[in-house]
């Protein structure tokens, strides 16, 4: 029989815990496992056995592959070996992190009683176990599993049958901070609203999940979508569920919500209750976002502009990485949120800009603030861990340090005239619970353990009984020696000793000749109690010694129990004050972001843009924020700044369209993207990389830059391009900003030209938006004569000795060619290919190919000669013809001399 002491739970040992032959009833332990697993389908079951979480059957197979751990087999079930793997409890968070990152969900099953209790019920009894938590990507709170700079949103989609216009709602929660928001949406902007929030998990009702009309959206999101029973979203009981969770009698104080919004909110709460089992995270009341309050950025634009991640999925190279100067986790998350959801309210934007301007003008204050902020811990996440029973002493310490820092930071602004956003932050500091901060200062020690079960986190002097228990635990020998000295003085017996053994415990021992003093003297009578008589000694005890012995024996347990009670008291107090603590943490994040954007503006030379309700879009000396920093790091040439003016011209009621032509490598795509990024930065409340900027609020931003395919859905590069272009033409309005690059490139020349031509006309006449349209179809420049709001601009180049120099400057006018052959040469194409391409290009441009393809095909032998000429195996003496060609110097020949040499070469080749 195999012994499995490292896996046993104390109720069954060895293979007996697992073995059940073919046709036999499962063992009690496996029966329990199978029952719990059946109730948690779709999740890997972490089944607690002693100091390990064990996984069996298919769960073990999947987990062993995902975690790279050994797959073993233990016992049999129905005649088959049972696959098994396990992870130690102390390292469970690390393994959970890997599993969650790979898209798994985990049900954590704990032992609900001491194994000794199960043994009392019989040798075959099994320890009671139950699932205490479902760990999913959107519900994690552990510090190890979370990126401090990224929010961790769980999102739900609510839809009500019969809703007008197909209206839906999205609710999203960050359980680690308590943030809770909801917004109405529609089918045409559903994916954009989801991607704006970037949830780790999207929960939808099963009927919605199987709705064919929404299938493309769910396919784009992938494994993050989880179908759940429709009952979680039932709008009929939604209000009751919300009131029960927040313990309120009515929702009037929450604001007005539609039925689909209530459905989404209820679904989020129901899923939290389902995954957290008995715990109730302290969530903020759901905050309703007004539709249109943030800049609409469609998913393709968000990806093309690489706002928070590059196309390869890296944060390096993204706009967020380039502008992030925050020093706290909360500040980093707020910056990302503002970047993903720029505002459309000019007054709200101005409030944020005022805060940045304040710190630019008060740089010494800003530096002191940033130094203070560097030590601020993540209070909202610490508070959430404490509330759901996963926190420790260091989380209480995080609240303590955070509250102390908030008080110190508030003092920095005392007596100053402040802009509205900073004033509001200071008001939040004033509402912080000072008594709780003082309580934490008095209660918590300087060095805090990770786990509360380790004890030692309560400061000495805070709790008298705890100090006494610690003294007994840590200084029992000194205390016993002191009591012995006291008894010696009382009795006068110099040889009196206090000893200890496992039978009597602590006892007083004197020699037999001192018997009378211990029993008959007035001082000792009734005080010393006889315990045992030995041949040469007598043993006694006292009530005091017996009590001390009991205290010493229980001191460690009692000390830990007192500390745990203090921990629970401090935690309950913090959770009760969670609204104030979260508001203070949010204020710290606002200050961090404002000071960080001021630091960025000073460091990079950004200006404050004017943002108003007009249709202006005038950027003077604009730069690309990411490319500019990359060039500086590489010590390369400085970034070339360019103007862009799409404002209404000459009294026109709508913004302008710029038709941008010019060579590849000339900087067209950079210019297009930088103007889109400047608009986003401006409307998130940041300063912008420009000499000056005036931007009328953009309500929708569309960018079609770059080429990609979607083979999984059967879409070619051109099809993807047309789908995205269609979305732009259907959704853009006069307040939109549209960035289009090379529309029509993926098909035949005349097809592409026709599509691009018609798209520009539609943008001008129907959408009437501000737009930048880059193209290599030079024929389109003629549109400037027909379309009043369209202007031709080009990327300037300079030709020198047959090469082209890219100036990266935007100027009025139109390019007459694209210099593609020169770019091909720079890319390293063989010289023979470049030479032949030039020849073909010259013939096409000169109109010499009446039969076009036929004429070019006739010229192919020339290409073959070129290739042969370049072979390194050729020697100068191989032929008279080759020697004659190599001897030519065309740069020094007159046209007449060149003609003569050509005839001579033809004679040498036998062609005349």
UniProtKB/TrEMBL annotation:
Domain of life: Bacteria
Gene3D superfamilies: 1.10.1420.10, 6.10.140.430, DNA repair protein MutS, domain I, MutS, connector domain, P-loop containing nucleotide triphosphate hydrolases
Annotated coiled-coil segments of the chain: 538-565
Residues of the DNA mismatch repair proteins mutS family domain: 736-752
UniProt-recorded Gene Ontology molecular function terms: ATP binding; ATP-dependent DNA damage sensor activity; damaged DNA binding; mismatched DNA binding
Keywords: ATP-binding, Coiled coil, DNA damage, DNA repair, DNA-binding, Nucleotide-binding
Binding site for ATP: 662-669
Matches recorded under SMART domains: MUTSac, MUTSd
Entries under Pfam families matching the protein: MutS_I, MutS_II, MutS_III, MutS_IV, MutS_V
PANTHER family xref list: DNA MISMATCH REPAIR PROTEIN MSH1, MITOCHONDRIAL, DNA MISMATCH REPAIR PROTEIN MUTS FAMILY MEMBER
Family affiliation: Belongs to the DNA mismatch repair MutS family.
HAMAP family registered for this protein in UniProt: MutS
Protein's name according to its UniProt entry: DNA mismatch repair protein MutS
Taxonomic placement: Bacteria, Pseudomonadati, Pseudomonadota, Alphaproteobacteria, Hyphomicrobiales
């Amino acid at each position: 029989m195999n012994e499995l002491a490292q896996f046993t739970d104390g109720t069954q040992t060895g293979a007996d815990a697992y073995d059940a032959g073919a046709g036999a009833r499962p063992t009690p332990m496996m029966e329990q496992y199978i029952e719990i697993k059946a109730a948690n389908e779709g999740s890997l079951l972490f089944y607690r056995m002693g100091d390990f979480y064990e996984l069996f059957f298919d769960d073990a197979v999947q987990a062993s592959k995902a975690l790279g751990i050994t797959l073993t087999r233990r016992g049999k079930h129905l005649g088959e070996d049972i696959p098994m793997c396990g992870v130690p409890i102390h390292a469970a968070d690390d393994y959970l992190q890997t599993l969650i990152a790979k898209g798994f969900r985990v049900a954590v099953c704990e032992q609900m009683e001491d194994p000794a209790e199960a043994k009392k019920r019989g040798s075959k009894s099994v320890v009671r176990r139950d699932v205490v938590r479902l760990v999913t990507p959107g519900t994690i709170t552990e510090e190890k599993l979370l990126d401090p700079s990224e929010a961790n949103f769980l999102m739900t989609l609510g839809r009500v049958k019969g809703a007008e216009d197909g209206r839906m709602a999205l609710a999203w929660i960050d359980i680690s901070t308590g943030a809770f928001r909801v917004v109405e949406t529609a089918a045409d902007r559903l994916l954009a609203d989801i991607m704006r929030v970037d949830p780790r998990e999207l929960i939808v009702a099963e009927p919605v999940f199987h709705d064919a009309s929404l299938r493309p959206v769910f396919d784009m999101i992938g494994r993050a979508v989880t179908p759940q029973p429709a009952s979680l979203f039932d709008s009929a009981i939604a209000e009751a569920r919300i009131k029960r969770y927040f313990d309120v009698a009515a929702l009037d104080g929450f604001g007005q919500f539609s039925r689909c919004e209530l459905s989404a909110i209820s679904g989020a709460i129901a899923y939290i209750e389902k995954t957290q089992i008995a715990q109730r995270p302290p969530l903020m009341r759901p905050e309703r976002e007004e539709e249109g309050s943030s800049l609409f950025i469609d998913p393709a634009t968000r990806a093309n502009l690489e706002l928070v991640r590059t196309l390869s999925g890296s944060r390096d190279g993204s706009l967020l990485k380039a502008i992030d100067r925050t020093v706290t986790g909360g500040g980093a998350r707020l910056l990302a949120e503002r970047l993903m959801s720029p505002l459309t309210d000019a007054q709200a934007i101005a409030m944020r800009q005022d805060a940045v301007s304040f710190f630019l003008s008060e740089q010494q204050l800003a530096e002191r603030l940033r130094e203070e902020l560097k030590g601020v811990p993540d209070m909202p996440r610490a508070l959430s861990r404490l509330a759901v029973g996963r926190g420790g002493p260091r989380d209480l310490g995080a609240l303590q340090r955070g509250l102390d820092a908030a008080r110190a930071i508030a003092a920095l602004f005392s007596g100053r005239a402040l802009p509205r956003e900073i004033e509001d932050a200071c008001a939040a500091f004033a509402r912080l619970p000072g008594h709780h901060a003082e309580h934490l200062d008095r209660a918590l020690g300087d060095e805090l353990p990770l786990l509360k079960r380790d004890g030692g986190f309560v400061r000495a002097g805070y709790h008298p009984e705890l100090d006494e228990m610690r003294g007994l635990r840590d200084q029992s020998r000194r205390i016993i020696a002191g009591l012995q000295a006291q008894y010696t003085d009382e009795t006068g017996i110099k040889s009196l000793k206090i000893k200890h053994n496992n039978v009597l415990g602590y006892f007083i021992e004197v020699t037999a000749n001192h018997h009378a003093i211990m029993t008959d003297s007035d001082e000792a009578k009734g005080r010393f109690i006889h315990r045992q008589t030995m041949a040469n000694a007598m043993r006694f005890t006292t009530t005091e010694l017996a009590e001390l012995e009991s205290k010493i024996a229980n001191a460690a347990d009692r000390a830990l129990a007192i500390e745990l009670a203090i921990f629970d008291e401090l935690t309950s107090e913090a959770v009760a004050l969670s609204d104030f603590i979260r508001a203070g943490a949010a204020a710290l994040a606002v200050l961090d972001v404002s000071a960080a954007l001021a630091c960025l503006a000073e460091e990079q030379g950004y200006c404050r843009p004017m943002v108003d309700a007009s249709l202006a879009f005038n950027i003077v000396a604009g730069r690309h924020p990411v490319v500019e920093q990359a060039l500086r790091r590489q010590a390369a040439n400085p970034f070339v700044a360019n103007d862009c003016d799409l404002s209404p011209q000459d009294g026109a009621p709508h913004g302008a369209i710029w038709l941008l032509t010019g060579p590849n490598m000339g900087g067209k795509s950079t210019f297009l993207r930088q103007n889109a990024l400047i608009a986003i930065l401006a409307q998130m409340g940041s300063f912008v990389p420009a000499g000056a900027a005036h931007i009328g609020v953009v309500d929708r931003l569309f960018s079609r830059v770059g080429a990609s395919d979607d083979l999984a859905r059967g879409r070619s590069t051109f099809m993807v391009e047309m789908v995205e272009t269609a979305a732009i033409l259907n959704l853009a309005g006069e307040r939109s900003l549209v960035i289009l690059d090379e529309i029509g490139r993926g098909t035949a020349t005349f097809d592409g030209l026709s599509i691009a031509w018609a798209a520009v006309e539609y943008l001008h006449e129907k959408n009437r938006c501000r737009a930048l349209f880059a193209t290599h179809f030079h024929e389109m420049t003629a549109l400037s004569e027909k379309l009043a709001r369209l202007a031709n601009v080009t990327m300037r180049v300079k030709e020198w000795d047959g090469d082209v120099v890219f100036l990266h400057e935007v100027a009025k006018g139109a390019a007459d060619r694209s210099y593609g052959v020169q770019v091909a040469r720079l890319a390293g194409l063989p010289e023979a290919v470049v030479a032949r391409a030039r020849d073909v290009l010259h013939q096409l441009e000169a109109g010499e190919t009446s039969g076009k393809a036929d004429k070019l095909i006739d010229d192919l032998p020339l290409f073959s000669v070129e290739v042969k000429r370049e072979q390194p195996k050729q020697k100068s003496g191989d032929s008279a013809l080759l020697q004659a060609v190599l001897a030519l110097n065309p740069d020094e020949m007159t046209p007449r001399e060149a003609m003569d040499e050509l005839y001579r070469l033809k004679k040498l080749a036998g062609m005349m």
